[in-house]
Design goal:
Order of helices and strands: EEEHEEEHEHEEEHHHHHEHHEH
Largest sheet: 5 strands, mixed
Radius of gyration: 20 Å
Strand content: 15-25%
Structural class: alpha/beta
Mean pLDDT: 92
CATH architecture of the largest domain: 2-Layer Sandwich
Number of domains: 2
CATH class of the largest domain: Alpha Beta
Helix content: 25-40%
CATH topology of the largest domain: Nucleotidyltransferase, domain 5
Length: 321
């Protein structure tokens, strides 16, 4: 039996760090998931090395490493420039990993690699003009233009989560200096913030009773209540889905994509967010853009970043035979 060719894929998010061994079908053969260490740069890198070392223990070998990281990345240099969620600024991660593990390494922004994965193997197969939004701790973005990833001048393009939706909105997260960004208005974090704010303001509501009873009030509870028909929870999704739709409308008007793919952990709620978003696009988007676009969930769901890191490795780092 022929041993399958494999790469190591790493998805470094603001909340969790996932790594896996992936072949080119793509099949995720082994996986490791742990909370991202964010205390210091050294601690964050130590957590990364620990997970990689575990996956590569024994006789496991890989042809390359692909990394998606929730940061601004200089793709050509393989360097993390800055991050709003991680203690990683000016870190030559490609060089560090190549020296430590002795294989070719490619790194890029986590949402860009998720977009690459969905384009290569997922919802975007065969599509030349595509936008991806990843909804998690923040909101990431990726752009496929003329069938290729669009990275901009230095590789830092597609920070779509930092378009401003409401200039008078709340301060953005982490080190972002803006207010009212899509990230702070329509991320998975935003769902949890909105749920807790409602629970505190309306103690007799289902969310308020849950808070008083000691339950964790977050996006997952909000989704359960909405799916059960709670009107307050549904109204919160309508509002936040509307913000998401406003961000999509901006992107659709500017880029005229055939497809908008929505991934990340918060996308698991499906139509609770996408329904309101589609309605806003239909009501406020320009023609013909709004009539030509399709808005769908990512095929790989919360694994889109991990599969995308594998796609990056196969496309950029695997030695050509």
């Amino acid at each position: 039996m022929t041993t399958p060719r494999t790469v190591l894929a790493v998805d470094i998010g603001g909340t969790k760090l996932a790594a896996g061994i992936v072949d080119d079908t793509p099949t995720l053969l082994r996986r490791s998931v742990a909370p991202t260490r964010t205390a210091t740069r050294e601690d964050c890198l130590a957590g990364l090395f620990s997970q990689i070392d575990e996956l590569l223990s024994g006789d496991q070998s890989v042809e390359a490493i692909g990394v998606g990281v929730a940061s601004m990345v200089d793709f050509r240099a393989g360097r993390i420039v800055e991050s709003t969620h991680l203690p990683l600024s000016d870190v030559p991660l490609r060089e560090i990993l190549a020296d430590r593990y002795g294989v070719t390494v490619a790194i890029d922004n986590d949402a860009t690699v998720a977009c690459i994965g969905e384009h290569r193997w997922g919802a975007g197969v065969g599509v030349d003009e595509m936008i991806m939004l990843t909804l998690g701790t923040g909101v990431g973005g990726g752009i496929i233009s003329r069938g290729q990833p669009h990275r901009g001048l230095s590789g830092a393009a597609a920070e779509l989560g930092h378009m401003v939706i409401d200039i008078n909105g709340p301060p953005c997260q982490g080190g972002c200096p803006s207010s009212g960004c899509l990230e702070v208005m329509a991320s998975g974090t935003a769902l949890g913030v909105a749920a807790r704010a409602h629970a505190e303001a309306f103690p007799v509501s289902a969310l308020g009773r849950a808070l008083a009873g000691g339950e964790v009030v977050n996006g997952e509870l909000l989704a359960r209540l909405a799916e059960a028909g709670d009107t307050d929870a549904l109204a919160i999704f309508e509002r936040i889905g509307g913000y998401l739709g406003t961000g999509m409308t901006n992107l659709i008007n500017i880029f005229n994509p055939e497809l908008v793919v929505v991934g990340g952990g918060a996308a698991a709620v499906g139509e609770l967010l996408l329904g309101p978003a589609r309605r806003v696009v239909a009501a406020t988007g320009l023609r013909p853009q709004r009539d030509e676009v399709r808005i769908v969930r990512a095929r790989f769901g919360a694994d889109a970043g991990l599969i995308g890191a594998a796609a990056l490795a196969w496309g950029e780092a695997v030695p050509r035979l």
